[in-house]
Amino acid sequence: MKKQLILASTSKYRQELLSRLAVPFTAQPPLIDEEKEKDPSLAPRALAEHLAKLKAASLKGEGKVVIGGDQLVSFEGRIIGKSHTREKAVEQLMSMQGKTHELVTAICVYDGDKALPYTDITRMQMKKMTREQIERYVDLDMPIDCAGSYKIEKHGIMLFENIESKDFTAIQGLPLIELSKILDTCSPL
Predict the structure, then answer these.
(1) Residue 119 pLDDT
(2) Most buried one in 25, 121, 154, 173, CB count within 10 A?
(3) Does some domain include residue 189?
(4) From the candidates 70, 111, 120, 141, which is the catalytic residue?
(5) What residue numbers bound the domain in which 15 lies?
(6) Could you confirm whether 70 is annotated as catalytic?
(7) At what angle do helices 86-96 and 131-141 cross, to 10 degrees?
(8) DSSP for 157-176, written as a single string
């Protein structure tokens, strides 16, 4: 009997990425209050892994394979999340320009009750830029709903000097290379 594949996310970016694996799935919002679950005592990687696991676990069950994910930017010992406003996006990018940050992308796949976690760490070095250049970029992509305030798959690539990544799709929100390996162990889907 085939298992139901569920993406525990309302993110259109994660849905677009998962569709690239050509497996049928449904997307459902996770049954957690993410803001209440953000534990400030956790290090950035631990927090992303914690949230990914909680999201997947909230929808897990017999006959289901559930994917939960979380992504955040770790910069100078603090977490940089979604900006939600143009002004905050500009300020986030100004603070990171000319420096390196880590993009932490955590997923957890539940195959029934079995948790299969994976975390990708991408090192991203931004170019030095003027405020005007950053404002022009923000006006192009309006990246207020993305961790770190950039959309690498759009014009955001212009912000970077160097990117060290094992899986470019992790930067966009879902590490498809590793996810496809994990899903292979969860068949039949």
Answers:
(1) 98
(2) 173
(3) no
(4) 70
(5) 4-184
(6) yes
(7) 130
(8) GGGEEEEE-S-HHHHHT--H
